[in-house]
Amino acid sequence: MIQLIYIAVLLYTQQYIFLKLQVRYSFKIHNCCKLATDFLELRNHLTKVSQNYMNISLENKCAVICGGSQGIGFATAMALAASRASCILIARNEAALQEAVAKLPTTFHQKHLYKVADFSDTAAVKIAIEEITSGTNIEILVNNSGGPKPGPITDANPEAFKAAFNQHVICNQILVNAVIPGMRILKYGRIINIISTSVKTPLPNLGVSNTIRAAVASWAKTLANEIGKYNITVNNILPGLTNTSRLESLVKQIALDKGIEEKQVKQELIGSIPMRRFAEPKDIASVICFLASPAAAYVNGINIPVDGGRTPTL
User: Fold this and answer.
1) In whole angstroms, what separates CA 159 from the centre of its chain?
2) Strands of 62-66's sheet, edge to edge?
3) Which DSSP helix (H) or strand (E) runs through 292?
4) pLDDT tens digit string along 247-291?
5) Which residues of 123-154 are buried (b: 16+ CB within 10 A; e: fewer)?
6) How far apart are CA 102 and CA 268, in angstroms?
7) How far is 305 from 239, CA to CA, in rounded Å?
């Protein structure tokens, strides 16, 4: 529906240009300055139209992207930076962070930074985000951290659940506690959690992950209900099978368990996806970028699968 409205607006704008020029320049152009003024007026008109109907610009906004040195996190940082946001990446590998920040576009004079923190260390995450928020207010927070090791839930020990809960739920809580005050001041906030399609339906051989991802989804919905009144939205992205190191490790584990070649595992997984391909990190990043934008102002408290249609539930 939005696309149809946008097309109609563009058609109206073309007619607007034609009528303007027909009336004022039907015989010849008498005044170049007048022509320039009319085109400036048109540009302002188009700007207002885009802001009213599909404003996805993140100009003058600052985003914190967790796990931003590789995979979906890095693709997200690239997408946000391309949409004019300044990005601050948090991850544990400083060399990878330096390389990632150097690749981010600065076409609109953004400043990109990084902080080193291991998400298995909640104290380190707290220090990193407090250092960030002491110097700037954050409009966009992307929570993203590596998933727990695969395996049946019956083989998992209590320590695995505790470690995963700290890495995902507790770290998320630490991060939002730090950024929400600034979001309230700015009257703009986007909190986006990268979770898993296991929120919709538990996945085989991911016992700990299924449990913790569901906890994050419930945490996020509760948070969305509490802070929506401040124009802060909270949404979850549920990536499907995506070409990342995480997928590679899962393929290796499945191949080992079944005693088959990794190539066969990949073929079987691709066959389970209606679109017959794995997602690329940029596929996930594009949806995150939309949710971070003003255009998604009324999208709140939902789980969005980005999985090529693989999830069997509605």
Assistant:
1) 30
2) 113-116, 86-91, 62-66, 140-143, 189-194, 232-239, 303-306
3) helix 281-292
4) 999 899 899 999 999 999 999 999 999 999 999 999 999 999 999
5) ebbbebbeebbeeebbbbbbbbbbbbebbeee
6) 37
7) 6
3-state helix, strand, coil in the chain (%, to 5): 55, 15, 30
Residue ranges in the chain modelled with pLDDT below 50: 1-14, 17-18, 21, 23, 25-29
CA distance 62 to 159: 36
Instruction: Characterize 275-294 residue by residue with b for buried, 16 or more Cβ atoms within 10 angstroms of its Cβ, and e for exposed.
Output: eeebbebbbbbebbbbbbbe
Q: Which residues contact 285 (CB under 8 A, 6 or more apart)?
A: 72, 75, 76, 78, 79
The CA–CA distances, whole Å, from 309 to 71, 276, 306 equal: 21, 10, 8
